[in-house]
Amino acid sequence: MDKPLLVVENLVKYFPVRAGFFQRQIGQVRAVDDISFDIKSGEIFGLVGESGSGKSTVGKTIVRIYKPTKGTIRFKGKDVTKLTKENLRFFKREVQMVFQDPKSSLNPRRSIKSTLEDPLIIHKIGKNSRERERIVGKLLQMVELSPSYMYKYPSALSGGQRQRVAIARALAVNPSFIILDEPTSALDVSVQAKVIRLLQNLQKELQLSYLFISHDLSLMRTIANRTAVMYVGRIYELASTEELFVNPLHPYTRTLISAVPVVSKEEARVKPKKQSRGGEIPSPVDPPSGCAFHPRCSLADEICSQKLPDIKEVIPGHFVRCHHVSINISSIKEQDSHLLKIQLNKKQQEESIE
Question: What is the pLDDT of residues 206-246, one digit of tens each?
Fold first, then answer.
């Protein structure tokens, strides 16, 4: 079995909260609180959750924009948390990030050519300016833009075109792993599908691996191989995307999926029931004791407020952090039998028509 491309173990990222004239620390934001996962070569790994759950902080910590508080990040077997700035050069060439808002991630005072040339100059790609210009033109063609766009400025481009430039910048150093932080959330709906299709095509053509961060479960169902669900800095469920949508086991996951629109009565019948009382995601400055979801969970009891459940593999490849996971496993068995009845009825109707 091939070794994972990226392994994140017990990753923690806290930000200090300071106040007063001397800016003394009075608390901390627990943005990422002990998470572990791995990503295989050629895989699209999804990370979902509400705003404020810590998804973007995970991506920025992996790419070393933020220094981790604790934990290890291993890329191709090397612990990048212990590397010096000089030794991080290989990692920064192999791992790139595409940010949520291309308008703020591109310098408005620099042409597209200058923006795309920067990583080539830093990593010494291209012998001279003429060769680098040729590479920039090729990069723009890869993201379905004309090479003539290199002479334009970000203000002259649409949101979708700016995001394509941001993707081209990430591809400039020929990486093997790209972190996509909500790459379509700032775009019009009509443009989102085109950008997603582009990302899927690039992943196949260049054999890339993605960490795809999003709050859109419908999108994750389309693009990701495996998906992890985050809540207040922790992973509460992790499984193959198909398994996660068919058999969601954590009350939070079931609540998220229950809000996804469906197009048929059959889908509505097998869609999980909402298992929350409503409310908003708590502050990571002062998270609830025990299971962070217990103030909103309809299954919560005394143990949920007192003890944080461990994340366990309850089905092969399916990990859940919940004291009452057995309740949802039994409900899934009933759902499976109902789904089987629907399939049998469909088969009988087709046979009668024939």
Answer: 999 999 999 888 889 889 999 999 999 999 999 999 999 88
Same domain? 115 vs 196: yes
CA dist 224 and 163 (Å) reads 20
The residue whose two tokens read 């994340």 is 311
My answer on whether 91 and 158 are in the same domain is yes
Rounded distance between C-alpha atoms, residue 219 and residue 223, angstroms: 6
Asked if 96 and 170 count as a contact pair (C-beta separation under 8 A), the reply is yes
Q: Consecutive sets of 10 residues in the chain, 354 residues long: mean pLDDT of each?
A: 87 92 88 95 94 93 93 92 80 92 89 94 90 95 94 92 95 95 85 92 95 90 94 95 90 86 60 72 89 90 92 92 80 49 44 44
Supply the range of the domain harboring residue 310.
Answer: 229-353
**Helix (H/G/I), strand (E/B), else coil: 226:** strand
Both tokens of 29, joined, read 């934001």
- What lies within 8 Å, CB to CB, of 275 at 6+ separation is 251, 252, 254, 255, 297, 298, 299, 328
**In-domain check, residue 1:** no
Task: Supply the pTM of this predicted model.
Answer: 0.87
Q: Which two tokens stand for residue 76?
A: 């191709």
SS3 state of residue 331? helix
Same domain (yes/no): 276, 188: no
Q: Which amino acid is at 207?
A: Q
217's tokens: 């479960």
Nearest to 51 by CA among 164, 213, 196, 215: 215
